[in-house]
Amino acid sequence: MSSDLAGRRLYLCTPARDDLAQFAGACLRGGVDIVQLRDKRLEARQLLESARVLRGVCAGFGVPFIMNDRPDLALEVGADGVHVGQDDAPATLARRILGPEAIIGLSTHGPDDLAGAAAEPVDYISAGPVEATPTKPGRPGTGPGYVASAVAAEHRPVFVTGGVTPSSVGALADLGVTHFVVVRWLTEADEPEKAAQALRDAIDRAIEHHAEAG
Description:
Blueprint: E1 10-14, H1 20-30, E2 34-37, H2 44-61, E3 65-68, H3 71-77, E4 81-84, H4 91-98, E5 103-108, H5 111-117, E6 124-127, H6 144-153, E7 158-160, H7 169-174, E8 179-182, H8 184-187, H9 192-213
Parallel strand pairs: 1-2, 1-8, 2-3, 3-4, 4-5, 5-6, 6-7, 7-8
């Protein structure tokens, strides 16, 4: 499934929630095309319960399901891959655990991280957060300059994080961004399907406009 990752533009990162299956289904109908479970509060067994729910929903839509941080749990639940941070299990270990076909992602937050990612066995990187966000407490925003440099330097997809909304994606697309991670725009939405559709439409328009301008 990693072979078509470049064509996936809208990446939902969600914590566990009581209505997880309904919420995820609504977001996927609205245009989300890759999903990650990220919940720092839960113990392993609780994470596995939510992961099995999300895996089933994602499989029904034919989109990849990614676990955050835990390649061991990703293996147990049959996830399509794992996303690791700079302080998590090494990407090389995740690759050994999950195998050559798994999707492995790696967070980067600055030039040193980007340089270190060059030799890592990952399928994509994330860059950001562009602006400070409560989902990453204590981490300052990188600003647009780092995002632009990451997109320019990488041959792998670069998923940009931090404050992704319909009103922000145009400026990001002008930097060359074509892959976006969303959290609060959808997790806090009263109508997640409509919110996802609005964001996906904005992304598609912004990318098309940037391509025409270029």
